[in-house]
Amino acid sequence: MYLIIRCPGCLTFTYVDRYQQWKLCPACGESIKVSNAPAYIDVKTHRDADSIVRELEKYLHKKKRNNLTPIEKRKLNADYAQWMRKNVSDL
Ligand SMILES: [Zn+2]
Fold this sequence. Notes:
Blueprint lengths: L1 E5 L6 E5 L4 E3 L6 E3 L5 E5 L2 H18 L6 H21 L1
Antiparallel strand pairs: 1-2, 1-5, 3-4
This protein binds zinc ion.
The site of zinc ion (ZN) has 8 residues, from loops.
């Protein structure tokens, strides 16, 4: 399991292994304490994490905003859960 978080310093999205406590921000080099960073979504694989991070950056850039609303966060989680169910049943 991977957790998508955001660097509190430079607001770059990144992800960590579920049990990791610290992460070095790939953009600004800050040591992010995972428990203090805003968490967005739990995903199964680092590939999912990677593509969601890219989607989030693109989405916010398009909307010219710098954060998701709580409703968008819930929708992101719901969409991912649905996508996972669909993928599992396709196997
Ligand atoms: Zn940073």
